[in-house]
């Protein structure tokens, strides 16, 4: 019997978190390397929150991607399938 395969929604959420994290992280690194003039900086600019939050999003995204990656043994129920024994031959 063939089962439909499904990809958990958490896998896609992990991919989305990782992509957003990369965008935020790279924008933060760019801002760090090319700082705005001192009169245009926000109060806590020295903390580089976008670099830290981007990094955190990438880490959480990768954890979700690795944890919920689709495997060949999962069926529509999301449970691991036991391999079925080969059919017995009934010819005499």
How many H/I helices? 2
- Number-wise, the strands total 0
The stretches of 5 or more residues where confidence is low (pLDDT under 50) are none
The radius of gyration is 23 Å
| Quaternary form | single chain
What level of helicity do the residues show? 40-55%
Mean pLDDT: 86
Question: Could you say which structural class the secondary elements and strand pairing correspond to?
Answer: mainly alpha
Describe the structure.
The protein is mainly α and 92 residues long. It has a domain at 9-67. Helix content is 48%, strand content 0%. The protein contains two helices and no strands. It has helices at residues 9-33, 49-67. Helix 1 (9-33) runs antiparallel to helix 2. The radius of gyration is 23 Å and the shape is rod-shaped. 9% of the residues are buried. The mean pLDDT is 86.
Summarize the structure.
The chain has a domain of 59 residues.
Key terms:
mainly alpha, 92 residues, 2 helices, 0% strand, rod-shaped
Describe the secondary structure blueprint for this structure.
Elements: H1 9-33, H2 49-67
């Amino acid at each position: 019997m063939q089962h439909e395969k499904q990809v958990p929604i958490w896998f896609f959420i992990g991919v989305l978190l990782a992509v957003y994290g990369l965008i935020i992280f790279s924008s933060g690194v760019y801002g760090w390397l090319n700082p705005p003039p001192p009169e245009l900086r926000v109060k806590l600019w020295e903390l580089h929150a976008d670099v830290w939050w981007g990094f955190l999003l990438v880490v959480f995204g990768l954890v979700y991607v690795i944890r919920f990656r689709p495997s060949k043994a999962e069926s529509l129920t999301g449970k691991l399938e036991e391999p079925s024994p080969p059919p017995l031959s009934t010819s005499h």
